[in-house]
Design brief:
This protein has about 475 residues and is an alpha+beta fold. About 20% of the residues lie in helices and about 40% in strands.
Length: about 475
């Protein structure tokens, strides 16, 4: 009788499947202050974080100057990719709200900083969207692209008990309500003769070049665990479950390319006035410069081609000059030291060596004309000054000196032997026997300055990162698949 009663109790327990409640485990996430849990009844949109709390707890992705692309070896991205997000996906946590705030440091132009803040937010938000397996409600995303994050600057200064906090706070209170970023920067740059601005630039601005994130998840319900009966007879063991790997999720990152070839023009030639010719006479010119990945040397070629003629006034200024040049920059252009996207690899002072050949036909009036060929070579010195933050636009100041050797012949309008013979042609200035005439009987040699230049240059071609060859684009987009490049 007792055995029958025991059997009935066991069957009843199995049929009704009694349950026990265990506490939820969120201990893993306690190590990451930027992951917060809220109750399911709370309105996530009402959760507010002060600037100080956000600064202290947010996960931070720091960017390089004037950049909004990242590499996946960043410590925060690595931890999100390999540790945190896989655990979130396994726990099937529901994302209630995500606050992403990106900004640029104030030293750049306001329009550029506005773009940087927006792009930095997009970079971090896209990374997170692509890797969270649980459905994401787009309304839960709160993104804030701050043009120049003075609020966070003040929070950092308060945390550091900075002695100049009151000055910066006063200027921010005056200008920020009217969005007067430019006036605010000018005011800060004048304080203490510029010393305050330089200190902010060194101590605080690097921390502002970032995107920060705080994730709000719904607090998981206490797990419900089935109570296993004490006696289990004839219960089959389930087959092992085959785990299906999570699909690879693409994430696009932007990678800068290294300059390959620049094109340039000498502004002094472009706006030249030629004495004797007595008029403005632009000298069309173009040059290219090839940049290796390593070393101090670059290699260039230039072509000057004025081809002006005014027959009625007997004025001609026609030159074809071809010049080859190599430069040695004091600043090394090694790719491991001058990484792409951080400005021009080759800039600053340089010395050069050059060689050139050319032909010319120059005439100032009916009695004075010369034609011939020339060659020469020499050395030069110059300085390259970047005009843009990324260094793709540059200005160069240069001077060259050396030797120029020319063989030439003078010529004139009409016959020099019989001035009364008028046929409207040009003649060499030769009064001897025609049979004794030889071309290029005259020689001219010059030692001294041969060229001055104020040159504007632009990087025309860039090396491709994944494929061979070059491109006109200074960036390329690379797809990352679960941490591996595709």
């Amino acid at each position: 009788m007792h055995k029958l009663l025991l059997l009935m109790v066991l069957l009843l327990a199995t049929a009704t499947k009694t349950f026990a409640v265990l506490p939820a485990d969120t201990v893993f996430y306690d190590h990451y202050p930027f992951i917060r849990f809220i109750d399911s009844r709370d309105d996530a949109s009402l959760v507010r974080l002060s600037d100080e709390v956000f600064l202290e707890e947010a996960g931070k992705l720091v960017f390089r100057v004037n950049r909004y692309d990242v590499f996946t070896n960043d410590s925060l991205l690595q931890e999100l990719e390999n540790v945190i997000i896989p655990q979130i996906n396994r726990d099937s946590l529901r994302l209630r709200r995500m606050v992403v705030r990106g900004a640029a440091s104030p030293e750049g132009p306001v329009p550029n900083n506005r773009m940087l803040g927006r792009r930095r937010v997009e970079t971090l938000a896209s990374f997170l969207r692509a890797r969270l397996n649980v459905p994401v409600d787009e309304k839960s995303f709160t993104t804030e692209a701050v043009t120049e994050d003075y609020r966070l600057l003040l929070a950092m200064m308060r945390r550091a008990a900075d002695p100049d906090l009151a000055i910066v706070q006063q200027l921010c209170d005056r200008h920020l309500p009217r969005y007067e970023y430019t006036l605010l920067k000018r005011s800060l740059q004048r304080v203490q003769g510029g010393a305050l601005w330089q200190r902010l630039l060194k101590e605080y601005f690097p921390e502002l070049r970032a995107a920060r994130v705080v994730l709000f998840f719904e607090k998981p319900a206490a797990p419900v665990v089935e109570e296993v009966p004490a006696v289990q007879d004839n219960i089959a063991t389930p087959e092992p479950t085959t785990l299906i790997p999570e699909p690879a999720v693409p994430f696009v990152i932007e990678i800068p390319r290294r300059e390959f070839l620049s094109v340039k023009t000498n502004l002094l030639f472009d706006f030249a006035y030629v004495p004797g010719y007595n008029r403005w006479c632009p000298i069309p010119n173009i040059a290219i410069e090839y940049y290796p990945l390593r070393g101090h040397f670059t290699y260039g070629f230039s072509f000057d081609c004025p081809w002006w003629q005014h027959y009625d006034e007997h004025k001609y200024f026609q030159i074809r000059n071809y010049q080859f040049e190599t430069r040695y920059y004091w600043r090394s252009g090694n790719i491991d030291r001058r990484t792409p996207g951080e400005g021009a690899a080759f800039r600053g002072f340089y010395i050069s060596a050059y060689a050139h050949v050319g032909l010319f036909g120059i005439c100032f009036n009916a009695d004075n004309g010369w034609e011939g060929e020339a060659l020469g070579g020499g050395i030069g010195v110059g300085y390259v000054l970047p005009l843009s933050r990324n260094g793709h636009w540059r200005m160069e100041f240069a001077a060259q000196a050396g030797i120029l050797y020319s063989g030439y012949d003078p010529y004139q309008f009409e016959n020099p032997v019989n001035p009364n013979y008028r046929d409207g042609l040009y003649y060499y200035k030769w009064t001897g026997r025609a049979a004794d005439f030889r071309e290029r009987q005259y020689r001219f040699t010059w030692f001294g300055p041969t060229r001055v230049a104020v040159t504007i240059s632009y990087d025309l071609l860039y090396r491709r990162w994944k494929k061979k060859g070059v491109s006109f684009r200074n960036k390329e987009y690379v797809v990352e698949m679960n941490g591996g490049k595709e």
